[in-house]
UniProtKB/TrEMBL annotation:
Name of the featured protein: M20 aminoacylase family protein
UniProt cross-references to InterPro entries, sorted A to Z: Amidohydrolase, Bact_exopeptidase_dim_dom, Peptidase_M20, Peptidase_M20_dimer
Domain of life: Bacteria
Domain Peptidase M20 dimerisation: 182-277
Gene3D superfamilies xref list: 3.30.70.360, Zn peptidases
Organism field: Thiobacter aerophilum
Entry keyword set: Hydrolase
Entry annotated with the keyword Aminoacyl-tRNA synthetase: no
Pfam family membership, one: Peptidase_M20
Amino acid sequence: MQIPSRIQSQLPRLVALRHELHAHPELAFEEHRTSDLVARVLDTAGIEVHRGLAGTGVVGVLRAGNSPRAIGLRADMDALPIEEENTFAHRSRHPGRMHACGHDGHTAMLLAAAEHLAATRAFEGTVYFIFQPAEEGEGGARAMIEDGLFTRFPMDAVFGLHNWPGLPVGQFAVHMGPVMAGADQFDITLRGHGAHAAMPQQARDPVLAGAALVQALQALISRECDPLDAAVLSVTRFHAGEAYNVIPAQAVLGGTVRTLRAEVQARLEAAIERVASGIAQAHGMQAQVDYRRGYPATINSRREAAFCQEVAAQVVGQAQVQTDLPPSMGAEDFAYMLQEKPGCYVWLGNGPGEGGCTLHNPRYDFNDAALPIGAAYWVRLVERWLAG
């Protein structure tokens, strides 16, 4: 494993930094303390600091030589609204908030890489260190883009990284194409006619219609989608009525749709509208569908993915780079950056996902053994991409 000696020697400090971030988690667009820490570390390293993109976003700029080439490296900073159940010393000190997805580790690794690159400057060109707020469902990547990320900081490509529980520490996974799914949300309101539960013939029962609709929606995956296309449709909410003896006048269903291709996404959206309307009419009522497009699919560009496979292999060895893992049906707003620029999003092994140490779990903790590996990957990527 090729870890620069400077990063290895700084490991105790890097671990302490990660623990500091973990102990003080901040939710989407509220990462004020975190962005202060990031800006302070970058400034101390002699890196040009820009703040305010998407409110709490930070961009560090590091130049070496005269080459016009430039790349961006992105780390997310926000935490989740989860009550932490861990008891170690660096557990969250803020009730109802915790780093349950490893963004503390992502931030620490990119800061370590930035410090190393600022000290060595063994490259020709410009590196933009992108510390992004609000990845967890709030679209901080899109907000940074709308605030001028790629116009103020023009780059040829952009790269991201996420820890992956279940993948052994010391391994990477790199996908040649889709890596994370697009994620949409829907709400369906069924409006019928309420009545006494003992006199159902006087009602147009939205609960009965809703039950039929839940069943019908599940068939869309098997009958609207090609079996070779990955897609998920999950109904996760069903709200109707308050009393045992009253058939309510309205029911509201909600859920999520996950797809890897835009064509499948559009087909399922239209099918949900059609099926909801048909079920409602069959039960003598009306349906209103509110379908909201969320994060698009995260799709790596092939050239950059091949490059990242080579870089990862130089850090951990070819045998430790997985290239055949299936994509995840989870979602990631780095997708917005990959819609604007070529690039690649890789998974970094976080070790066994046992004992609750899975993403978005109240017992999750980033594996500190992965810190020098991720930092070394960032360093090697820059030195290879911006080779003199």
